[in-house]
Amino acid sequence: MKLQQLFYILISLSLFVQCKQSEPLPTNYKLVWSDDFNGTELNSNKWEYMIGDGSQYGIYGWGNEEEQYYRKENVSVSDGILKIKSISENFGDKEYTSARIRSLNKGDFKYGKIEASIRMSNAGGLWHAFWMLPSNPSENWPISGEIDIMEFVGNRSSEIFNTIHFANQFGGHMQIGETEPILYDNLFHKYAIEWNANKIVWFMDDQETFKVLRTNTTISSTWPFDSEFHLLLNTAVGGNLGGNVSANSMQTAQFMEVDYVKVYQKK
Question: What is the DSSP pairing of strand 159-167 with strand 146-153?
Fold first, then answer.
């Protein structure tokens, strides 16, 4: 009798562990786009590389006085993980190299639940981001809007940034955001937003961290988030938010690692 009871207990524990490890789909959403980074190279049907110092796109320093040169060679895919490598390396007119990818014209979305599982180095000067820009803007930034799902800065490694950028009625840059306190543990965490016509809500590991309502008087008259946006993943070095770069840390490769990116939309 005792052996039989032990057997059932072990079976129950096994089922419990399996349930905890699974990630069921949100009940009111359907999966419409995803990348689990299987294979040995970046999926060109879902992503494109952004190369250079920003001048190729008319924004030298990527608009933030960043200190890196983005290279295709700094992206790798193996064992189901995307890795963006940042390192001290003279290339172009920059002292550091890193990488930036986007889903423009390969994954463009209006509303939904957008999430990724990410692990990031906290080396001083690194500025990791999982964010969104409009795919067919009728106006320039910031009028067209920007959604920063997650930003993490090595020099401020006790917090995560959740932010939107937009313009006031005169076209001037505005932003609404909040920092979420964290205990940095160098582990994968899930970062997400739920976005619809009336609000954007941010989550970390399924816990709500921030919310912006369309009725917020700061943005209600110029809300730009009713068109298709695409995804971006990158690690900048230095710049306006990255701050002072730890030259010693950057002698060794530092990584932003992404387990998956998923986009759901309402059924």
Answer: antiparallel
Whichever domain contains 103, its CATH number is 2.60.120.200
Task: Give the Cα separation of 210 and 267 in Å (integer).
Answer: 24
Say yes or no to pLDDT of 109 above 70. Answer: yes
Using pLDDT thresholds of 50, 70 and 90, give the confidence band for residue 106. Answer: very high
Residue 160 falls inside a structural domain: yes
Residue 214 — φ and ψ, nearest 5°? Answer: -60, -25
Q: Is 228 a catalytic residue?
A: no
Q: For the segment 27-54, what is each residue's pLDDT rounded down to a tens digit?
A: 799 999 999 999 999 999 999 999 999 9
Catalytic site residue 159?
A: no
Tell me if 239 sits within 8 A of 64, measured CB to CB. Answer: yes
Catalytic, out of 66, 67, 151, 194: 151
Residue with tokens 């003279």: 90
Residue 260 structure tokens: 């998956």
pTM of the model: 0.90
Pair 267, 237: CB distance under 8 Å:
no
Which range of residues forms the domain containing residue 41?
27-266
